């Protein structure tokens, strides 16, 4: 099958029997819901970009598995320059939508599994690598969207209680296993055809050492939508969006050929680390894309306000750009230092991706601050489209918000900025990166080891022997 | 009349005939609207605090004008220690509501006018000071809430066009004047009995050099509500809030005894600077109060998550506290250096208040970032009250969000944090301070003068004569 | 006796028999040494300022103890406004010398002892308060300079070993006690007539709970000069300076009337905290004074370079000023919140002074960075006075460093900036504040208590009862 | 000839007849001077590293020009991965010496000239590329050290005056040209065999569009040493160092075969930009190497102080590491995005290197601040080696500075930290990067162009057409 268009994608999602709950009730027509539609629209836009000849080189590639041209969001990255292309794709998409791309977590989970399944097979003679390649051929061929289910419920519970809530195998049957538990922060689940689930860190119990893929509408899956911010969005604003959800696996059957890890606890840490490393790199690409939009929106707003020549506006825009490019640079850097693996993909050094992570969880706040010092309160004060269209108020709005351009444009750009500051784009830009898993403890540990080398350097220069 | 209770206040606002527009239509029952109710609730809470014996010393004082005990939000501050009490009141209220106090702009406008009206009278033999004192006696006696209308429409228009949109006198009659134009960012207008309007900076044309007070439901006033962020608020969350509005003065008559400046352009700059100075000081008090709530909410969330003993959580909380106290300290410092004026009130040095302003427009972003690195995405993922109460989902929510405390508490605190990050509290905390008027140009200028002194110091130490 | 002039001061120091060691040898003529002379010059300049009629109000006051006019550096502060005057004095002096004032630690030790001695007497019937007042009358009357010896050797030693190095009583005689041990970081000791020694924190052993004063040339005192930075200073640069020293008390006899605490361990923590609080406040004054000089020097350098109209230069200067004023504001704020004590002096809340401390250990680095982005490498490349005066090179120097002003001036201002970046002024500005004692643990603890209040605020708004 | 050892290098420098002036007089035995020796020692150490088999891959490569193995500091970089190796070499050397590498400017000048000379020849039929390749073969073959002379005197002079001080051709002869003028900030000149001089930016006058190489002891060259900081260094500390100098070309003859640009003004901007881009990249490598030493020294100091387990020490070390790795990452990123040129070398995008530059002029200050909050004043208080060795004082020093390790080690590490904070290492780490040329104006301009793309992205999402 060829690559899907956005329209084909939307239709394919509508055909799924997703079990979604919102405000306490089951949602019958998910795709039409104002909460979910902006997320579907975002993934549809990714499809359209991939189908666009101009972006062919960035958005698609030829799969080493199928030999066919595929959406790069379903690709196993081969080397450094391939990883840099991934970043460029994410920045392009981030810049087109100013929203979550929904597909990065699934992509990163596939890539983390690729080498891990290979290594597990090598040691234990299992067949996970073949399973994974078949699954990949399936999603690449059908151009399917894949959600990554990684984050576990955050519980302060004791280890024994945690057994009750972590995703785990509760029954083993000849043809497969039955899993139970929940995964949090599933941003792409309502917009995906498949879910890949992997452990979020090292696990000691064999039942929890489980990685697999199932369709999003598999029997037993419940999707519970969280409270989102709509940033004051009004009907007709038409922004792209995202929807965070809790996914409950209420006894879901996973057939053997969809299992990629099953009890080999010693590989769980490696798998989780590899996912974390890829996902931090992803963040560098997609968030710098959102940064592009925010910077552009502020530049437009300043132009409409007539302040674009002011020295503080120019300085702030330069500083915002510097910070945004630092975020991107750190993604490029860890990509450039990636190493190829025996399985045929590649892996990125975890501590080096921590540099990405630290910056992508800091600079967006400063960028936002600088942005707001330019637009000030205007983004909050602007009335909605309905005021502007109203016969009674239209002339007042036009008069008091008039700019060098059509007043309507000024209102629109302010609405977009409001969305980027307080709406679902803000959640993606400011909050989501905070979640980048992989363990502070582990980062600290690796750094600790490096510290010994540095102490040696200092000791030698200081003249301390031994 | 005694001080109003919150209930009396709400009733008094309901009795006003406010001319409010939302989503393109006139709002019939404003006080009941879910958009406006949280703002009224906030001002009502200020009234209740003032009526509470425990806060009597902070929230009330004896008016030097009427000799009666009044709400401190209607007080003319006499000296440094009085100004420090103002800060304490604002921090107390900010901490109780985590929302805009709605009354600071009006309070700061009164105080700025107090000395300016006195000085104008002294030079021109006008009677503005008496007018102001009568107005103050009226609002102090009736315990009325007063909005400050200061910010002008932000137009890139030419000076001639600006004549069409700035608030100005369009007709002069024996008993008063007729004004036309608009004021932006009127956060308190829907919750106030009176509006004081003053110019936002130096004006050269006599018609725009106008300061006055009118009731919020005066003939010709239109209140147009802007798009707000609700941060994903759900019915029943019950937070305090704020509502930004554009106020159009569509030919409003102002009687002579309500005029506090009328054509004396030379005093407009002083008046605007004094307002800006007081308002920056106010921000230091109210925003450090919101900071208190945010820090407390994060500490509770960490406790519910079981991470409150982690060293990074403790360090982040300490750092958040440090930044919050720096904001407060700068407010105390400019208060402590205030000078008494001939009129009987006091004034604060503008450049010194700029220190407040710079910090209050920076540190809340860093505080927010530190906060989010503790709660991560949880605040977005938590479902609404309705999910939790739902028969179908309640047990799942309870299981997967369970904490050391009742799950319900964990959801509640996360909802509050969401509100503080993306809701109307966020607008007040992060965006509103950006608007603090008074002119970068002017701050730069004053600093430039100080620079000459500093150059002299350096030259002397370096051994450069002359 | 009247206030000393700088000249009288220098003569009085020369007459002392200080036991100073430098580069491994006893220094015979300390006052003439190029390492010590800049420090003495600095204290001499403080004396001259105090004798100058123009600064009388800031630099001097009437002692409540003697009823005579005294140098404010020997004063017991009575209330908030008195403490704000202290800050102004320190900023004035810092701005005149861009160097350590040498007298703040002694001043802060006196003030910390004042209330503590009073309270100890009250509980134990001792006579420390009288002893202290007599000592104060002595130094106030003679206009003597007093060093504060507080910091203990930093040892990773076990408690038992620490007994060997901490300052303590090793023998008790009828007329007094014999003390042994060392105090670090005695910046003022070579420039002082007297030393006040106090514990640097809570101590449990009675022998170490000792506070006293002795002349700097008392029998048994050894002063060992540390390595200093001279920042590339060349003879003739003529800057003010400072000299850090280790003071060894090698069995020094302290007569009873010079003892202010002797074994009352329960008061050691209070004493140390009070000292820390006063000393953090001091830092806010003196470092903002150095900041004034640095900002002024950079402004002059930019003017000489012809870049003073560039927007980034102006922005950097404004930002440097903002940070410098934040440092000062936090000093004003904690002063304004000080409380009067029963003894007659006043005390400052330790956590509030921690705000001072955190900022004064951060912003000077950013100020320095901004400064350097203006001067760039010029300060390092400029040759010394001797090159400029040399017949062979003079014309080349003149040609290639020529500026709008005399080349000599450009060299001089660059030399001053070098000193402020890398010389002894840099040590005072950047490193010394890091030492501000008082205990991170304790700051954290106080903040922890405040956290409970904040949690209550958040819980109430969120609707969590209990 | 094979690669030089450090010893051979030192001998080769001693044989030069350098015309060096210090403190107003000609320096007869430069290599033995305490000011210059540390710089020579640093370059000697680079030679020794290159000769060390363990570092062969990083420090050396096979020249595409000569086909021989050469020191990588004389290499023309071929592609991205070659540039990443350059960074690794610089980090290695920075980490071994904590000092300026002295050879980066020359290296970057060669590489910038390589493609520029090629392109100039292509347009004008000149022979600069051949000249350059011959020169490169000479320095590669002889393993010579090459200084880069780029920075012009900073004058506020008018353009006409600037003609008098900028380096330029003052006479044209058959066999070559005579140049006059000066270059600033020549850090490597006293330690080099050759100087490459290039314009520091676009020039309009043909006489100033001159690039060439001459030996450092060519007739007419005067080297005037600037004031340096020695950070309190004491004889025997034995650190590596650097020496900034003004180089005056007092009518120096340059033979035709040593000329690489001569009057082709249109290529000056490209040349200067390419140099700036390479040099910013260099800074990322060498400064992260110094950062390694500083972090290691602080870790050792904390260990000796017994505070290495404290949470704030560990957090500070992690943060220092993060900032240091961000500096390095930005160097890797711009290297990874470099493009190959027709001439056979490669070039780096200037705006992307600006990300390096901004971070390398910021983070070292914050790293230094964090470092100092760990060591506090100890680095200043520690006495010199001579005190420790003194019979009279040794036992006191040993007693009061005792640590878990030999006291001597503690003194040594503190001396190193002092050097890194205030000595010549500090100049290299903190000040030198500020000088990274290439033009703020130009960076701003490029960013301005990018802004248009970003505005388009925002406009599309907001729904603004056109």
What distance separates the N and C termini of chain A?
65 Å
Count of DSSP E strands of chain A? 14
Q: Catalogue the unreliable spans of chain A.
A: none
Identify the CATH class of the largest domain in chain A: Mainly Alpha
Q: What is the multimeric organization of the chains shown?
A: homotetramer
Major β-sheet profile of chain A: 6 strands, mixed
Averaged pLDDT of chain A: 90
- CATH superfamily of the largest domain in chain A, called what? 4-hydroxybutyryl-coa dehydratase, domain 1
Number of helices of chain A: 17
| Domain module count of chain A | 2
Shape of chain A: globular
Percent range of helical residues of chain A: 40-55%
Strand content of chain A: 5-15%
CATH topology of the largest domain in chain A: 4-hydroxybutyryl-coa dehydratase, domain 1
Radius of gyration of chain A: 23 Å
Structure explained in plain terms:
Four copies of one chain form a homotetramer. Chain A has 466 residues and is an alpha+beta fold. Chain A has two domains: 6-264, 4-hydroxybutyryl-coa dehydratase, domain 1 (Orthogonal Bundle); 270-449, Up-down Bundle (Butyryl-CoA Dehydrogenase, subunit A, domain 3), CATH 1.20.140.10. Chain A has 17 helices and 14 strands. In chain A, the strands form four sheets. A six-stranded mixed sheet of chain A has the order 2-1-10-11-7-6. In chain A, strand 13 (339-340) and strand 14 (346-347) form a beta hairpin. In chain A, helix 1 (6-14) packs across helix 2 and helix 4 packs across helix 8. Chain A is globular and about 75 Å long. Chains A and B meet through strand 2, helix 7, strand 10, strand 11 and helix 11 of A and strand 2, helix 7, strand 10, strand 11 and helix 11 of B.
């Amino acid at each position: 099958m060829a690559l899907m268009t956005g329209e084909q994608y939307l239709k394919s999602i509508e055909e799924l029997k997703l079990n979604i709950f919102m405000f306490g009730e089951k949602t019958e027509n998910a795709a039409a819901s104002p909460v979910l539609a902006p997320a579907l629209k975002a993934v549809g836009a990714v499809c359209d970009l991939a189908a666009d000849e101009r972006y062919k080189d960035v958005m698609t590639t030829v799969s080493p598995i199928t030999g066919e041209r595929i959406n790069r969001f379903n690709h196993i990255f081969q080397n450094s320059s391939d990883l840099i292309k991934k970043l460029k794709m994410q920045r392009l998409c981030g810049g087109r939508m100013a929203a979550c791309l929904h597909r990065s977590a699934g992509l990163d989970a596939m890539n983390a599994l690729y080498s891990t399944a290979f290594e597990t097979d090598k040691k234990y003679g299992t067949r996970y690598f073949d399973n994974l390649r078949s699954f990949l051929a399936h999603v690449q061929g059908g151009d399917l969207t894949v959600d990554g289910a990684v984050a576990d419920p955050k519980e302060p519970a004791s280890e024994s209680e945690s057994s009750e809530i972590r995703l785990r195998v509760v029954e083993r049957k000849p043809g497969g296993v039955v899993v139970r538990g929940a995964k949090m922060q599933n941003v792409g689940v309502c917009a995906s055809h498949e879910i890949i689930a992997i452990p979020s860190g090292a696990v000691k119990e064999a039942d929890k050492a489980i990685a697999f893929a199932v369709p999003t509408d598999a029997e037993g899956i419940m999707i519970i939508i969280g409270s989102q911010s709509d940033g004051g969005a009004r009907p007709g604003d038409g922004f792209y969006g995202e929807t965070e959800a809790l996914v409950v696996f209420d006894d879901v059957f996973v057939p053997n050929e969809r299992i990629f890890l099953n009890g080999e606890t010693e590989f769980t840490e490696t798998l989780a680390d590899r996912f974390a490393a890829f996902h931090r790199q992803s963040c560098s690409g997609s968030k710098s894309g959102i940064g592009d939009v925010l910077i552009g929106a502020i530049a437009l707003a300043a132009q409409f306000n007539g302040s674009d020549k002011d020295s503080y506006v120019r300085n702030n825009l330069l500083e915002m750009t510097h910070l945004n490019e630092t975020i991107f640079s750190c993604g490029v850097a860890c990509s450039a230092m990636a190493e190829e693996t025996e399985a045929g993909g590649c892996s990125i050094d975890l501590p080096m991706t921590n540099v990405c992570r630290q910056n992508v969880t800091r600079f967006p706040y400063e960028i936002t601050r600088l942005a707001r010092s330019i637009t000030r309160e205007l983004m909050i004060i602007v009335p909605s489209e309905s005021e502007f269209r109203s016969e009674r108020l239209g002339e007042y709005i036009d008069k008091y918000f008039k700019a060098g351009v059509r007043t309507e444009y000024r209102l629109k750009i302010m609405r977009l900025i409001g969305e980027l500051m307080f709406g679902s784009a803000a959640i993606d830009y400011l909050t989501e990166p905070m979640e980048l898993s992989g363990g502070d403890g582990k980062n600290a540990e690796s750094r600790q080891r490096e510290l010994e080398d540095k102490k040696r350097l200092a000791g030698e220069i200081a003249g301390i022997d031994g």
